[in-house]
Design a protein that fits this description.
Structural class: alpha/beta
Largest sheet: 5 strands, parallel
CATH topology of the largest domain: Rossmann fold
Bound molecules: calcium ion
Number of domains: 2
Number of helices: 8
Strand order of the largest sheet: 2-1-3-6-7
CATH architecture of the largest domain: 3-Layer(aba) Sandwich
Strand content: 15-25%
Order of helices and strands: EHEHEEEHEHEHEEEEHHHEE
CATH class of the largest domain: Alpha Beta
Radius of gyration: 18 Å
Number of strands: 13
Length: 224
Amino acid sequence: MRLLLVEDDTLLGDSLTRQLETAGFSVDAIGSASGARHLAAVEAYRVVVLDLGLPDGNGLDLLREWRGEGVDWPVLILTARDEWQDKVNGLKAGADDYLAKPFQVEELVARLQALIRRSEGRVDTRIVVGGFALDEHRQALTTPDGVDHTLTGTEFRLLRCLMSRPGRVFSKDQLLEQVYSLDHSPSTNAIEAYIRRLRKRVGRETIGTRRGQGYVFQPPDDAT
Ligand code: CA
């Protein structure tokens, strides 16, 4: 899940990036409104964390701009403590949620996961497809035989992408984009290697190859 983090406090930004990546997000962090504007124009994100006080502008103006252009990614704004007006203005400008600084990262992660679930129309914290259940809190996969598999961050992000839209073919480039942030630029060979590892857990035929197109999650007995 690609996440755009707009935060000019580098200390907070660095520590949030690390913790959000541990929680299964691929994070692009940027410290200015102009940088965020540029990234949002060329990249595709699942969710955005937006600080309001930026050195070259107000996060609210950026948010209004995005909503005016039809950008519909869920946005969580970071506000200063007790600035209730910021919260109201943020929600009016199109924010989906807010969190006042200082906050616990666990709460931020839980709120982001809830925003993504809502944007996907889910209430369950697990993605369930044809007997496979992917638990985003535990980053674990339960296979139809009832066995629990703990996944690495990259395995989880890749499988989450495939399982979130079963039956849809993802190209290697699309998967690469969703699984890694801009800081990492692995080749599509890395995707092939991870697909091989995932197939050992879910069964070879569960992740199909479409020659020249990409990969698709399609469990053999999928009744959904
Ligand atoms: Ca700030």
